[in-house]
Amino acid sequence: MHGLNWSWIVVAAIAPGFAGMLIAYPMWRMNQPILGNLAGSAVIFAVAIALIMREHIELDRQVQACLAQGFTCWPDPSAFMRYSVYAGIALVQVMALFSVSLRVEHRLRRRGYDPEWR
Q1: I need a surface site. Which of 27, 30, 72, 83 has the fewest CB within 10 A?
Q2: Distance (Å, rounded) from C-alpha 58 to C-alpha 43?
Q3: d(Cα 1, Cα 20) in Å, to the nearest integer?
Q4: For residues 38 and 68, what is the distance between their CA atoms, to the nearest angstrom?
């Protein structure tokens, strides 16, 4: 129960942001940036909640194993810190999604003008 599970943190840092972009991009191209942002954010936050629940179940199993052996043990770092790592990663990914959305929307808006008017 000591230390963070870095393999799951790497998964949380890569997969949800990529999946959110894949979901949002077609909606951005259809001039629906808000809908794309909502869909991408929903994917990112859903994966973050799933990873937090996975971490919770893992910690609960380890604590129950300690209690079954007759002593108490506490995770290091605390459960709150473990959960906040996943939540923080998700928040950064949603901010990046919104930033990319602004760039895509700007390019789509400027695409309708002749190059000499840009």
Answers
A1: 72
A2: 23
A3: 31
A4: 44
Estimate the crossing angle of helix 33-68 against helix 6-29, to 10 degrees. 160
Burial of 13 (0-12, 13-18, 19+ CB in 10 A): middle
pTM: 0.86
Report CA torsion sign: 62, 63, 67, 72. positive
**Count of H-run helices and E-run strands, the chain:** 3, 0
Q: In terms of DSSP H, where are the helices of 1-118?
A: 6-29, 33-68, 79-111
Per-residue pLDDT tens for 59-93?
999 989 999 998 888 888 888 999 999 999 999 99
How far lies 85's CA from each of 16, 68, 82, 89, 118, in Å?
14, 29, 5, 6, 42
CA 34 distance to own-chain centroid: 18
Residue 40 is which amino acid? G
